[in-house]
Fold this sequence. Notes:
By secondary structure, this protein is of the alpha/beta class. It has helices at 2-9, 127-136, 149-152, 177-184, 186-200, 214-226, 247-255, 275-287, 316-322, 376-380, 387-395, 415-418, 426-439; strands at 30-32, 38-42, 52-53, 60-61, 66-69, 78-79, 84-88, 91-93, 100-108, 163-168, 204-210, 232-238, 270-274, 293-300, 306-311, 332-335, 342-343, 357-361. The chain is globular, with a radius of gyration of 22 Å.
Amino acid sequence: MNTHVLEVLGLKRSAGVHPPSNKLGAQVAIERAPLPETVTLPLQQHIGAPAKVLVKTGDEVKVGQVIAEAGGFVSSPIHATISGTVKQLPTVASSVTGKAVPGVVIESDGQDQWIDLSPANPDDLTPAEIISRIKEAGIVGMGGATFPSHVKLSPPPEKPIKTVIVNGAECEPYITADDRLMIEHPERVLSGLAIVMKTLSVKRAFVAIEDNKPQAIAKMREQVSQSSFPGEVSVRVVPRRYPMGAEKTLIKTILGAEVPEGGLPMDVGALVHNVATLAAIHDAVVLGKPLVERVVSVTGLVKTPKNFLVRFGTPASALIELCGGSEPSADELIFGGPMMGIAQPSFDTSIIKGTNCILVKKSDIREEHDCVRCGRCVEACPMGLMPLQFVNLVKYEDYDHLPGYHINNCVECGSCAYGCPANIPLVSYIKLGKLELRKLGVK
Length: 443
Ligand code: SF4
Ligand code: SF4
């Protein structure tokens, strides 16, 4: 169907776009951010059921202590990220959905007292014990998807994983957190990979890195040659093209396989893990360390773009100050990159598990015009879809025809909107269309 659409329109499928990279912090080493005086931790930092709070106001907590337990199998616990006292259990706005979610505010005692960690040798653990440690540590997909990692590591028996793909593409402009992690901590990333391969008895893995990250490619290749794995691992350099880092694009590029519509990578025997997730899996399994911090790029209109190792719950404004503040023209804060990131209502929004970047920018509100049927959105779509049709159908509330145009295959990458001369916010229309279909119970 996809080729047909393009042929009908006389277009060549370029599958993706080439926005300027703007990797401003690519040469800036990761710096540990000072401990915040207070942290605000939303209890929904993952896809799935919200975590259930276990603490009350006035409780003393240590770093790594579980403050909210998983609310189901597809859920993840939340841990205290500083030691101190629980000050409030407020309702906070989710930085992902904007919806009100329960939260926990902890005031620091300045001591950074940790719970007792229990390190382990992965060779001494069974796959079930490894998955349990990953679950208890609250590991979720840290490339932004935030899907609980223990669920991804528990495929049904009829869908065995044959290949693991390490996602080091980091294709969104501005973001440099994964690049720096691969340059500075390749051993943690690859230890996490070895653990995943062992857990799922996988014999083949590829580390996919875009060609604009030569230092990361060299470091990962060097580390692969020095490490031992339960199978074959190789580094694959992939062309810089947005959205190379989308799971389906990466699987198509590396394996030549198409994940079926509505399906998952496991449907083609693949598992994709982001590099930060693998480093966190290493920390959880080998060190016994719960997920309490991550690398975050702070970039855009700040005096000095940087990469920080940050405790969750730290307000974005504190990190922007550590970058020398924002430029006077800056009036918008995005969590994530410019293509898929989410605008935040306040510069004080807290960093959570899925926050890989704080992008400070000037807002760019452009007037929407009528579609000129130029076909650029069709040409740019990596999934071979017809984004312009989604706009028409959603505008006229013709939801019945949306599934026929495979709207649920859209990965919401924004490539279609990027070059639209009519400034049509295509992804907003697509999200609305998907929402209406969900309300109608159409899959
Ligand atoms: S939606 Fe935008 S990019 Fe797509 S055909 Fe219309 S004007 Fe062109
Ligand atoms: S947002 Fe969806 S429709 Fe638009 S280019 Fe990406 S996958 Fe295609």
